[in-house]
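Quick log. Single chain, no ligands specified.
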Amino acid sequence: RYRAHRRRAPLAHILPLDPPPTPIPPSRGRPTTNSMPVHAQLNGLYTAPADPTEIRTFRPVGSHLGDKTSEWWLARDQDVFVLMHNALRGEVTKLESVLFTLGDKTLKEWEIQAIRDHWTGHYESLKEHFKIEDEIMHPFVKTRVDILGDAFRESHEELAELAHAVDRTINNHTWATAKELSPSLHAYRTALWPHFIEEENIVIPLTRAYFTQKEVGDAFGTVLRTKKSSAARRLVLGSIVHHLAGGKEGTMTFLARCGFERFAWYQGWRKLRAHYRARMEAKLESL
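-> predicted structure:
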């Protein structure tokens, strides 16, 4: 081994040990004008966290100041945007894992139906998630600071097209093995993950700078309190509760941050989680 190492050593003086870094191209459909600093552009997994002091990029509305970050004590991974994203991440990750395990095995009819049921529930949750952000949470943030115009709404439209392609593959086509679904699901996941990072790195720092923790909790509380919620909304809320760390105690703490009494767990939230588990989680467990 020593002699072989000595023979290879001179090459280190000729060839670079590491290739030069490849420039990361801007994401498709993202703004690239000189009026927006490079660090503020949406660039998938490489999106830099927003700096609230960059007021030429993230323009305050009226006389609002981005000076409230220090008042937050809640960890970033407990932010409502992260919790919503984690629920969707969990669903896709588990579905991909099951498909990988099943591989090219010829599936029985009940197995195919279980995969279809789980995907259909996720697809409904995704569309409802976009609706919550586009109609409630993002407009709420924009009352005090601009979050790159309609960039996130446009991303939602692109992701909806990819998800629709997966839905057609699973529900409208004939297939016999899980392996046949992997390409379309992989394309969807590899677009969804960077989008979540973009939102978390832009929206969360700005939200924490321009709003207090209570204000954000109360705003998300309006989502939780929507009367006569649609089936999709109940599924979204059940998914959030199911994927929360800490079980019942974790859910009660989360509800308290959103303006509920801790005993609200017994007034419907336990049923929401049970409904989600029966509608979604049980399908994958059966496989």
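DSSP finds nine helices and no strands in the chain.
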